[in-house]
Amino acid sequence: MQPIAHGKRGAVAIAALFAVVLVATLLVTLRASAATTLAGTAANAALGGGSIEQVEFTAYSEEVVGPVIGRPASGFVGTWQIMDSGKVVTVTVNAQTILKGFGNVPPATKSWVEAKGKRQADGSFVAVKFRPNRFRSGEIVARLTETTTLAQVGKIYRSYRLTPVESVLSSSGIYRFAITKGLDEAGVAAVLNADKANFVWAEVNYVSEIPSGPVANPYRTWKWGSNDNTGYINQTALEQVDLPPVQGVYSGTNVVVAVLDTGIDATHPVLAGHVLPGYDFVNEDAIPQDGPEPGQPDGPAEGHGTHISGIVLLVAPGSKVMPVRVLDVDGRGDMVVLAHAIDWAVANGADVINLSLGTDADANLLEVVIAKAQANGVLVTAAAGNDNVVTPQYPAAYPGVVAVTALDEANHKADFANYGSEWIDLAAPGVSITSTIPVSGSILYATWSGTSMAVPFVSGAAALLRQQFPAAQPSQIADLLVQTGMSLDSYNPDYAGQLGRLVDIGAAMQGTLPQLPPTVTPTSTPTETPTATPTETPTATPTATATSTPAAPPIEDPTFTPTPTATSIAPPVVRPSEPTVVPTWTPVPSEPTPTPTQVSGAVPYGPPYIFLPSLSR
């Protein structure tokens, strides 16, 4: 866990759609193969005439996005079956199809892909371009410099039709842009990144995917239960994290834990009465129900948010869960949606944000919004991921975020769990964890595995500590959890120093809150005022009377740069115990719910694209 960056609190402001109408023809020439390139002429001028890599332009009329369910026996060329919005679409990849992002390895079954091309008369689809679905098609996220305006960049990059769609963090100058249909998004982002006069950074709207391969079935350790709560309240995981000494003493009373996930089934008897109003950023309404929308098929991540919420309340039964839906039933969302949701949770009173999700994409947008949450006194926990690799995952690896990996019941690293000495902070049980699931007849509980399940043990522990130390800063709570954790090296000699420490709730609650570093207010030292030395008056020439040089006024040493030792985060922020209702507009729910309290607000458009939940592999 690295030091926490400072930030300023700001409200999400949604920009109106920017009315850009270009009647001029795009500066492109479509070849007979329906593919050519578009040179960044305007951008080239903006960068002083330097050489800019051309951005690919490909003609297509439709796109198919979804997991691969059928593929050629070998190679890329042949017939692919892709599940798009619950329907199987046959996609033909031929020798003329442009392949991007695969290297020499064709995508495996269950991998999410994107095909751009043309629908044939028989209903099949011929792909002009075929690539992994790792980012939102036709979108760029960028942060403008302080001196740049939307009108300026729109004019400079008119050949890209760079059109602002919404403000993501208005106080930070971050916007989501649409670009010309067919342009290579990564290429456009690279061009904008090179333009430091107008952009601090630019990137694609990153997405990720549920792990692919023969063991990637998230139901591998999903076991349906019953209405018997014995396995839920008496599981060995509770002793593993040393919860029993705390039970009945601290419960996390009224501490708000925002669970940003697939939603929640608020009718579950364990959850009822503990759920605050939340928001659904996938379906854009105030009912974050865990499950498919009417008419939509089920998906592998359905129930994930309800399961996570049950673990939070198992550890901190007096806390309040704020459900914020950022993932659909396939476990997919994007960075823009997640950024809006984090900002919304902070504005509506979250004390802890549980992110049982992750990606290998290091996104500027996500780092900025998390730093802002931390600066407002919110502790963020996140899953390490389930690929059994040392590669950092995000947001877990961001500064100040508590990164959590998973153990089995013998304190051994779970076979799927990621690890790393540079970024993992804590470990918690994550194999066959029993918790709540959406009510299905008499079935109320089930077991699930993943680093996702380890995170809420830490979030619940943080809620208990927040109750005990209400004025504590997030860094103090995180440090206390790490300092009082148990070493795992003797259980995992092959991963010594790479799993963090096993969270020990009993020890943490008896611990002493670490002191924050003192704040040093620097004072600059002005340059000494030189003493004027009058010039001697020669006696041989009495008419030559010299004047003395006046003393220079004090000036600040231009080489002096104050380097204060800052506290890790800003002072505590007082929040309401219930989410704030901002009466700007009221979304109409698409289905009834037993908990119809709606939270209105400036809620942005959020497409349901990929953001990996840390499901078991």
Provide keyphrases for this structure.
disordered N terminus, 617 residues, single chain, alpha/beta
Structure description:
The chain is α/β, with parallel strands linked by helices and 617 residues long. Helices cover 17% and strands 21% of the residues. It contains eleven helices and 24 strands.
The strand line-up of the biggest sheet is 15-16-14-17-18-19-20-24-23
Q: Strand percentage, roughly?
A: 15-25%
Round the mean pLDDT to the nearest integer and report it: 77
Class computed from helices, strands and strand pairing:
alpha/beta
List the helices and strands and how they pair.
Blueprint: E1 35-38, H1 41-46, E2 55-58, E3 62-70, E4 78-84, E5 87-93, E6 98-99, E7 112-119, E8 125-132, E9 135-144, H2 150-156, E10 163-169, E11 174-178, H3 185-194, E12 199-206, E13 223-224, H4 230-233, H5 237-240, E14 256-261, E15 279-280, H6 304-315, E16 320-325, H7 335-347, E17 352-355, H8 364-375, E18 379-383, E19 402-407, E20 426-429, E21 433-440, E22 443-448, H9 451-468, H10 474-483, E23 486-487, E24 501-502, H11 505-510
Parallel strand pairs: 5-8, 6-8, 14-16, 14-17, 15-16, 17-18, 18-19, 19-20, 20-24
Antiparallel strand pairs: 1-2, 3-4, 3-7, 4-5, 7-8, 9-11, 9-12, 10-11, 13-22, 21-22, 23-24
Helix pairs in contact: 6-9, 7-8
